[in-house]
Amino acid sequence: xxxxxxxxxxxxxxxxxxxxxxxxxxxxxxxxxxxxxxxxxxxxxxxxxxxxxxxxxxxxxxxxxxxxxxxxxxxxxxxxxxxxxxxxxxxxxxxxxxxxxxxxxxxxxxxxxxxxxxxxxxxxxxxxxxxxxxxxxxxxxxxxxxxxxxxxxxxxxxxxxxxxxxxxxxxxxxxxxxxxxxxxxxxxxxxxxxxxxxxxxxxxxxxxxxxxxxxxxxxxxxxxxxxxxxxxxxxxxxxxxxxxxxxxxxxxxxxxxxxxxxxxxxxxxxxxxxxxxxxxxxxxxxxxxxxxxxxxxxxxxxxxxxxxxxxxxxxxxxxxxxxxxxxxxxxxxxxxxxxxxxxxxxxxxxxxxxxxxxxxxxxxxxxxxxxxxxxxxxxxxxxxxxxxxxxxxxxxxxxxxxxxxxxxxxxxxxxxxxxxxxxxxxxxxxxxxxxxxxxxxxxxxxxxxxxxxxxxxxxxxxxxxxxxxxxxxxxxxxxxxxxxxxxxxxxxxxxxxxxxxxxxxxxxxx
Length: 510
Hints:
The protein is an alpha+beta fold. The protein has helices at 69-81, 86-92, 96-103, 106-118, 120-123, 137-145, 160-169, 210-220, 242-248, 264-272, 466-483, and strands spanning 14-18, 37-42, 48-53, 56-61, 65-67, 127-131, 150-155, 176-180, 192-197, 221-228, 231-239, 276-279, 291-297, 308-316, 321-334, 344-347, 359-370, 375-384, 392-401, 413-419, 431-434, 440-444, 447-452, 455-460, 491-495, 501-502. The chain folds into four domains: 14-81, Roll (SH3 type barrels); 88-198, Vaccinia Virus protein VP39 (Rossmann fold), CATH 3.40.50.150; 234-297 and 305-330 and 345-419, Hnrnp arginine n-methyltransferase1, CATH 2.70.160.11; 431-502. Helix 4 packs parallel to helix 6. The chain is globular, with a radius of gyration of 25 Å.
């Protein structure tokens, strides 16, 4: 498979315009400002392109650029169709995989249950809105524990059909009303006293469901009403990650007695330019005490505040070790409605019971040994993608200061990480869609199946990996082009095995 893709269709550089500022984190990355025009020479991956600015060539993040001219028009048309990627996003919540994961998260679910139980007296006869209710677990807690007058359970995905059944099955239909639709389009007959939602994502903000919560707050929460969570904070700590570093980088030093170190820069770019989600850090790997770097008051936070959120940090190293990166997590707080009632906290950090969010690891390009008494200070910026509204970048800037000669005193280190939505499908399925043709591939129960019109072909997977599956799909597609008048159209979307979204464009007939 050819990895490099030329900038333009004719092999010529493609002119692109920068959507926002970017500061490169290494000598091989270009720095640019908003509205700069760059020439893209190659597109080695969907995330990083090889571009030129003012005669200097380097890597640039693809999400920061938009093609100009005719290519720009095509790109804008594509982006504006669904900049929120709602079709794919809500489709992922239409299956049970994510709901099983969330309901199995006892820390998360019990936190909401505790909030409702400890505030049951104050919730009696109140109007509650459960935004993004999923299977309706929070709404059912409200109905059973607090006797509200009504709970409006709002859910945009197709799981809402089953939520209605669950409400009826648990004899709560007189209290809980399930409304299927996006929060921005939902109509309620009255204002609500309580707006509750489980909107938090990785790094607190990722996927930006919080915007829907804020819009619902401004539209439906009565004056003096209650938000749950009431506040939230993003925490950060410098850390060790020896096993992950060994797995992704040190591995190449001498596999099978051979020197593969020339692959280490490639491995660093492939594995460390994005954060590692679902990371479980051992508390002993924290090099200092964590600190809250971004705090959010859900009563005063505005939608426009989400475009860029900044924070500062200063850590005093409490134990000597190797500084591999930063680990982030969040806490959410639920204020009490009862007199002298205690605030309930949902903590996703390493000193609490693990949640389905776990933690998020941001790896440095080069680990640094630090010693007790050293300081690590800097800043963090969470920048929302101006086009793809569920995506964002995280830029970390840090300095290490020490009086010890053994410590590398680093000045003005900076690194940007991209966080983008992974299209989530059923764990056991792979689906590939062809424009106009309506061809579908899916993998289930150890087989990959191709369906188009009246034709169905099935192949045992056995030990086949994804690339073998793709090869099978392409072979069948080539056969289809010979017998179908719609041959030669582009393969536009591939939804892969429970998570990763891959976009493939076949510009020439196979």
